[in-house]
Amino acid sequence: DGGITQSPKYLFRKEGQNVTLSCEQNLNHDAMYWYRQDPGQGLRLIYYSQIVNDFQKGDIAEGYSVSREKKESFPLTVTSAQKNPTAFYLCASSMAQVNTEAFFGQGTRLTVV
Amino acid sequence: KQEVTQIPAALSVPEGENLVLNCSFTDSAIYNLQWFRQDPGKGLTSLLLIQSSQREQTSGRLNASLDKSSGRSTLYIAASQPGDSATYLCAVYRHNTDKLIFGTGTRLQVFP
């Protein structure tokens, strides 16, 4: 089946640790995105990538890092510099053209313990 | 700055009702508008995509309209069912950006 796979579904992080969230797609999409969702707020863009080996900061990139070494993969690292990382993280992809539909994965819930 | 607003924030209706969810945006310079459904603890499922040149899109019991000049979109759900209970989000793809801008959603509950 074509789609976007995020793993793990649940992730627990200790204070001061870096953790990496996985996002893989087999839709042959050029563009990939990471969003953060908090209760009562809309989705906020963390990072996005329109092409392999290139990515741009979104609205809330501080404390996060990404890489795009392969078209299919766009992992997100939540670093210790992110002061409030507990949230629901969503990965999405779309064709590079702006008038195309975006598809989302099932999300990763990150909790700081 | 593009802002997207969804009203109401929550809605509870009996099964069988036809209902309308509203989405408004402040900047009409958009490429498209997309409606999503989100079940609790899950990702987003795309429902309908309306290009800026289109007035409406239909899929089954769902119909979405777009009035770009007034900055409004509505999602019409016909003959609602308990399985329609979810949060519905709209998002616009604004000109000169590479991202979708989301509203905060409408939480819908359809009771039997």
Protein structure class of chain A: mainly beta
Number of helices of chain A: 0
Question: What's the rounded overall pLDDT mean of chain B?
Answer: 93
The biggest beta sheet of chain A, please?
7 strands, mixed
Describe this structure in words.
The complex is a heterodimer of chains A (113) and B (112). Chain A is an all-beta fold. Chain A contains no helices and eleven strands. In chain A, strands 2, 4, 5, 6, 9, 10 and 11 form a seven-stranded mixed beta sheet that branches. In chain A, strand 9 and strand 10 form a beta hairpin. Chain B is built from no helices and eleven strands. In chain B, strands 2, 4, 5, 9, 10 and 11 form a six-stranded mixed beta sheet that branches. Chain B has a five-stranded antiparallel beta sheet with strand order 1-3-8-7-6, with no helix packed on it. The radius of gyration of chain B is 13 Å and the shape is globular. At the A-B interface, strand 4, strand 5, strand 9 and strand 10 of A face strand 4, strand 5, strand 9 and strand 10 of B.
List the helices and strands and how they pair.
The complex is a heterodimer of chains A (113) and B (112).
Chain A: E1 4-7, E2 10-13, E3 19-25, E4 31-37, E5 44-51, E6 54-57, E7 64-66, E8 76-78, E9 87-94, E10 103-104, E11 108-112
Parallel strand pairs in A: 2-11
Antiparallel strand pairs in A: 1-3, 3-8, 4-5, 4-9, 5-6, 7-8, 9-10, 9-11
Chain B: E1 4-7, E2 10-14, E3 19-25, E4 30-38, E5 44-51, E6 56-59, E7 62-67, E8 72-77, E9 86-94, E10 100-102, E11 106-111
Parallel strand pairs in B: 2-11
Antiparallel strand pairs in B: 1-3, 3-8, 4-5, 4-9, 6-7, 7-8, 9-10, 9-11
